[in-house]
Amino acid sequence: MGWGCAAPGPGPGPSLPGPAAAGSEATAGAGGGGARSPPATTTATTMPFDFRRFDIYRKVPKDLTQPTYTGAIISVCCCLFILFLFLSELTGFIATEIVNELYVDDPDKDSGGKIEVNLNISLPNLHCELVGLDIQDEMGRHEVGHIDNSMKIPLNNGDGCRFEGHFSINKVPGNFHVSTHSATAQPQNPDMTHVIHKLSFGDKLQVHNVHGAFNALEGADKLSSNPLASHDYILKIVPTVYEDMSGKQRYSYQYTVANKEYVAYSHTGRIIPAIWFRYDLSPITVKYTERRQPLYRFITSICAIIGGTFTVAGILDSCIFTASEAWKKIQLGKMQ
């Protein structure tokens, strides 16, 4: 029997090179000294920028928190305490503060070296025609019977007198005195018992927060003293400046006083009493300035109050909670 040759039938077409084939070719190429194929590149994924990374106050979900009665009580007390301190700071911020300082200077240089004086005194046992005001100082001023800007008001049916005067003195040591020296005829026994209603220097300050000796002799009563005695009031005048919020300055004077009472005889042996006001000026000036707390200081105080209160309350609440949890564990251990 002979062998025949069969005709070739339709077989599978040429196979496509798969990954394995490609790998084999690459290996073969490498082994056979062929050209190396370039490696495949990988694309990196860029993360978008998230601004929330800067949040230092990370939020905790409510499901992870545990409210307690102690924490509620501390929270309410904390809020009330903050409210109280806030209202106190707000009151201090709205109100004006008066600050005083001392310095050596003549504050009122535009006054021409003069000080305005206001005197109001009653002599219930001396006739008005006998009452006069005399002014002397170390600059050589010697004025007897000063009558400018003065007024005499009769008292006790003309038996007494009330003297009101507004005059100026030089800013040098000196004195002014109420006496009978300017009377045309000197009385035999002049009665110098008196009551001082007012003695002030400079402008009048109507400020409630400033308590000074602007009218230190107000209400001085010498009605029970010796009728023929002279009275010496020794005054130390202190310049005072008051500056309000608008920067306007007012000039006034405070004074301290010491007094003595004695019987004085003239060169003829007669008793001629008088009421002396001997004054000298202090080189120290007192300045009162109205100020209001600056806004930045108020905000700083409020932040300190809120932050400090919440911090202390948080520490206290944490300590109480930790102690209560520890106590519960101790009780459970005892029960077992």
Automatic annotation (TrEMBL):
Residues 51-143 form the Endoplasmic reticulum vesicle transporter N-terminal domain. The keyword Chaperone does not apply. Pfam families: COPIIcoated_ERV, ERGIC_N. The keyword Ribonucleoprotein does not apply. One of its GO terms (biological process) is endoplasmic reticulum to Golgi vesicle-mediated transport. Residues 153-317 form the Endoplasmic reticulum vesicle transporter C-terminal domain. It is found in: Endoplasmic reticulum membrane; Endoplasmic reticulum-Golgi intermediate compartment membrane; Golgi apparatus membrane. GO terms for cellular component: COPII-coated ER to Golgi transport vesicle; endoplasmic reticulum membrane; endoplasmic reticulum-Golgi intermediate compartment membrane; Golgi membrane. The chain crosses the membrane at residues 68-87, 295-316. Residues 18-28, 36-45 have a biased composition (Low complexity). Signal peptide: none annotated. Residues 1-45 are annotated as: Disordered. Keywords: Endoplasmic reticulum, ER-Golgi transport, Golgi apparatus, Membrane, Transmembrane, Transmembrane helix, Transport. It is a multi-pass membrane protein. Its main location: endoplasmic reticulum. Plays a role in transport between endoplasmic reticulum and Golgi. Belongs to the ERGIC family. This is Endoplasmic reticulum-Golgi intermediate compartment protein.
